[in-house]
Amino acid sequence: MSNSAADTTTVATGNTMGVEANGINPVPDAERRGKPSGLFPVWFSWNVSILGVSYGIFIFSLGLNVWQTIIAGTLGYLISAALVGLIAVGGPRTGLPTLVQTRFAFGSKGNFLPAFFGYLSNTGWQVTSITLASTTGANLFAKVWPAVFAGDGGAPTVPTTVGWFIVVLAVTMTAAVFGHGFILAIEVWIAWITGVMTIAFLFFVLPEVKWGQLGDAAAGDPLVFIGGIIMAMTIVGIGFINSGGDFSRYLPRKTHARGVIGATTFGIAVPVIAMLIVGALLVGSDAKLGEAAANDPIGALTSLLPMWFFIPFSIVIVISLVSAATTGIYSSGLALMAVGFPLRRSVTTAINALLIAAGAFYLLFVSTSFLATFQSFLSLIAVLMGTMGGIQLVDFIRQRRLNWDIRMINGSGFGGRDWRWTAFTSLIVGTIVGLGTVSSADPNFAKITGFLLTEDARTGVIGQSNIGVIGAMVLGAALYALLTFAFKIDLAPDRSKLPVAERGDLPADAEILAEGVAVLATADVDIDAEDAR
């Protein structure tokens, strides 16, 4: 993946299996192809996993009954997935990854903060996926060959887990390097395989549901129900906001927005809603399952399976988690370059590997509860990503009025701004309020959260359900809209250093926008007027 449009070996995606050469440059119109429906399997394969069953268990644990869990989770998934779909519309309009398009709102230098935390968000999700894939593979070996790979109590040995981690990480990184076209091609097959095996999994676990006990859990009050919706939003959709346009940017510029929104929304929501229902039914009839899932979400669920199905299904789980990690690492590579560092694909891959290794070590050997660390990560990163997403959606109004002029990714004088303090200030205010109104069950994360809450609120549903995430999103978006449209504080694009002939508005599909501006994709690159052409 390159940082500029100087490469002439770019490959079109969709049915192309070569290594992608496009980086964070705008994808030229000549390489645009495909239909919005192609987005569905990408998002579907990313989200179809029995980990989604654990999500239902987590939402139930707030204090909801089975039916409240299903309704609240479904609403939360649909709302947050639709937000990702809206963000994805910017992909075909500009040909840019999401965390580069955010330069329109924040400025080429001001975008450092959202791009950096977007990178951390992607990396955190990959830590989770790769860690779970590694432990699933290690558990498989420990059950099939206990004399070699299991220790006392039947748990896999540390070398077994570490060995699986190395293999999973290597496979994931290799697949991610091939890029967009390769990912789209393999995700279709992975979506089918994982979907079929997951349906088979349901036939084994649904008989475990004790239907007569589903009404035993008491219903939560309205505030707890709202908390369930918000927790569902933070578990699934909000974590993908910073990647929304990464897979839609190869679509033709005139692609209908409703197709992009629909394919993205339902690709994310359909599998997790199905898994949510199963998780709610299982935990509603067996409270001990919730306790087991808090420490080992996949192990707790696969223990319900007969050995002859456990073996192939564990392999499919590993494949699905590697698939999710691959798409995430692809986006995290884009995010790292969007931060502004002129790094090659090999360097970003090495950095990703080191950070994922460190995160996996913490999750495997330091954290005492997967659920506590997972929820804490979600709340922390969702505060900033949700606020950024809200501001970006508001700025779409301005971007559309300016004909999606991609020169706005550049610095002051070359079509954009170095800083747009209206968006940056809104992001900071929303983030501070959000961090102050969420809590963390992980003691290390808890040190930087909940400082605006009382002790009762911190340990109650307000803190546990991450309501502060939505508060931060609404506050940041509202403040930016107020400054931009009510007070009309709009820092217009600065084109003063461009040649006079290029300072006016150009058609959004002008070839110069796709070919000449991409050299500026790194925020701190200085060019002269001749290069600007």
TrEMBL record:
> What InterPro entries has UniProt attached to this entry?
Pur-cyt_permease, Pur-cyt_permease_Fcy2/21/22
Q: How does the entry describe its membrane topology?
A: Multi-pass membrane protein
**Does this entry carry the keyword Coiled coil?**
no
A GO molecular-function annotation = transmembrane transporter activity
Query: A cellular component term (GO) from this record?
Result: plasma membrane
Q: Which domain of life is it from?
A: Bacteria
Q: Where in the cell is it found?
A: Membrane
Q: Name one Pfam family in it.
A: Transp_cyt_pur
| Keywords recorded for this protein, A-Z | Membrane, Transmembrane, Transmembrane helix, Transport
Segments passing through the bilayer: 43-63, 70-89, 162-182, 189-207, 222-241, 261-285, 305-330, 351-371, 377-398, 419-441, 461-487
**Which family is this sequence assigned to?**
Belongs to the purine-cytosine permease (2.A.39) family.
- UniProt-recorded name of the protein: Permease
